[in-house]
Amino acid sequence: MTSKRLNVIPSRMVLMQLRLRQKGAEQGYKLLKKKSDALTMKFRSMLNEIADKKEKMSEDIKDSVLKLSKAKYVTGEGLVHNVIESVQQPSTTIKMGVENIAGVRIPMFDMINDSSEGTELRGLGKGRKQIKNAEKKFTSSLSLLIKLASLQVAFVTLDDAIKKTNRRVNALEHVVLPRLKTTISFVNSELDEQEREEFYRLKKVSDKKKIKLKKAFLEKQKREKEKRKQQEELMGFNEMENEKEISIDKEGEEGEEGDEDEDLNVYDSDPEDLLSQFQDNEEIIF
Amino acid sequence: MSKTRYQPREDLYFAIIGDRDTVTGFLLTGMGNSVLKSNSNFLVVDQKTSQEEVEQTFHRLTNDENIAIIIINQTIANTIRHLIDSYEKTIPTVIEIPSKNKKFDFSTDYIMGKLQKMLKKKK
């Protein structure tokens, strides 16, 4: 279906180039397959981890909110307002590192807690301890969340990377390689065909030459016969004059015939020599 | 499919869209940033907050390149589900957390949705 061949002129050079390309494609296919396998393995191990972390996170946050409610109960509703209003510069930030998995860059988050300020401002008398508790709990939730975020980002990035790699792998396996293969076999068969054609052509040429030579030979024979006839006719005139000369001439004619036989042999062997010469030439050419 | 190369950075922030208690709790950790009121990295959503405001904040936060993680309550996420589902960037990443007094529903979480499909496929 997709194994249409490439549009190339069948020649030995093209065949060599195609073979090189096929080799390259096969190598690329192997490498990409390995990459895809490595990514998939990492991905699989990540799936369960994410599911676990999500569940844990949901429990953890519930706990955190409970702790905050306790703090609120002690300090009163003013706390919420106070906290929201007092926000200024963030003391907790995120550090993003990059991890490399099989050539795929995956961002990894890490929390930086610069707790030099902020916490002291919220010491509201007796509720201080409760607030501190809630803060601790939320910080631990946040660190859990950051891990989850790292996993989540890695999940999405890997998912993308795997899809991309698989697409390439499939393209190589199902489109590029079959196409190259059919093209190579096409070029091969075409070259064979050319060779056969060439051989047949040479044979035909030598056959034609043979026929030509035979014709030439026959014509020569004909001419010779005519000549003989004329000579005989001439002899006929001379017969009356001298009978002895005829017998001598006849002997001469027999000798000539023998010569002609030798000529025939020469012509017969000639085309074969030609053919073998052609074949020699052919080997030299290719 | 975005073709961004991730560079290591150190000055990224959280962002949070949530109900009053959740936001307060996370602000206690010192992740809040409100040097400019219009540019703060948190939004308290209550009955008075309009849907439009939530959507706008979501847009603003997702297009802020200083933000790495957006934390959002699931009940609020449900109101802007169409935005979250069509959200394609990897950074900032959106994390849904359970809302107060509500059980976390794993089936609506967009990452979990994908995950569950794959886990099923594996089996």
Please provide a brief summary of the model:
Chain A is 79% helix and 7% strand. Chain A contains 4 helices and 2 strands; from the N terminus they run ααββαα. The radius of gyration of chain A is 50 Å and the shape is rod-shaped.
Outline type of chain B: globular
Could you please say which CATH topology of the largest domain in chain A applies here? Helix Hairpins
CATH hierarchy class name of chain B: Alpha Beta
Shape of chain A: rod-shaped
Known CATH architecture of chain B: 3-Layer(aba) Sandwich
The chain pair with the largest interface is:
A-B, 63 and 51 residues
Stretches of chain A where pLDDT is under 50 for at least 5 consecutive residues are 255-260
Helix/strand class of chain A? mainly alpha
Strand order of the largest sheet of chain B: 2-1-3-4
Topology, number of strands of chain B:
4
Helix content of chain A: over 70%
β content of chain B, as a range?
15-25%
Alpha-carbon distance between the two ends of chain B: 28 Å
Report the top-level CATH class of the largest domain in chain A: Mainly Alpha
Task: Please tell me the overall pLDDT of chain A.
Answer: 78
What does this structure look like?
The complex is a heterodimer of chains A (286) and B (123). With 286 residues, chain A is mainly alpha-helical. Chain A has two domains: 12-191, Helix Hairpins (Orthogonal Bundle), CATH 1.10.287; 193-285. Chain A has four helices and two strands, in the order H-H-E-E-H-H. In chain A, strands 1-2 form a two-stranded antiparallel sheet. In chain A, helix 1 (12-75) packs antiparallel against helix 3 (128-239) and helix 3 (128-239) packs antiparallel against helix 4. The radius of gyration of chain A is 50 Å and the shape is rod-shaped. Chain B is of the alpha/beta class. Chain B has one domain: 3-Layer(aba) Sandwich (Rossmann fold), CATH 3.40.50. Chain B contains five helices and four strands, in the order E-H-E-H-E-H-H-E-H. Chain B has helices at 20-28, 51-62, 74-79, 81-85, 110-122, and strands at 9-18, 42-44, 67-73, 93-97. Chain B has a four-stranded parallel sheet with strand order 2-1-3-4, with helices on both faces. In chain B, helix 1 (20-28) links the parallel strand 1 (9-18) and strand 2 (42-44). The radius of gyration of chain B is 15 Å and the shape is globular. The two termini of chain B are 28 Å apart. The chains are: A mainly alpha (286), B alpha/beta (123).
